[in-house]
Specification:
81 residues, mainly alpha, 3 helices, 89% helix, elongated
Length: 81
């Protein structure tokens, strides 16, 4: 399972790097080395935040935390009637 996730993350990084340098090459956009470093850090940070939020979503769903919130809010609505 962990190896599959690492393969997917590695593939996403490779695709984003190829896309980044492809856009720069075909649009003749010039950027300093500092810009490339900042963009790389930004891409990695964005992937990290996205992966972390998806992991929290799956963790919450797997352990039933969403069901607890749904049933408690449903019970609260029924008690108001």
């Amino acid at each position: 399972m962990l190896q599959t996730i690492l393969k997917i993350v590695a593939a996403c990084i490779v695709v984003s790097v190829i896309t980044h340098f492809g856009i720069i090459y075909f649009t003749e956009f010039e950027m300093s080395i500092h810009g490339h470093i900042a963009m790389g850090i930004g891409i990695l940070f964005t992937y990290g935040v996205g992966a972390g939020l998806m992991a929290l979503l799956f963790f919450s769903n797997k352990h039933g935390h969403d069901d607890e919130v749904y049933t408690s809010s449903q019970a609260k609505e029924n008690s108001d009637d």
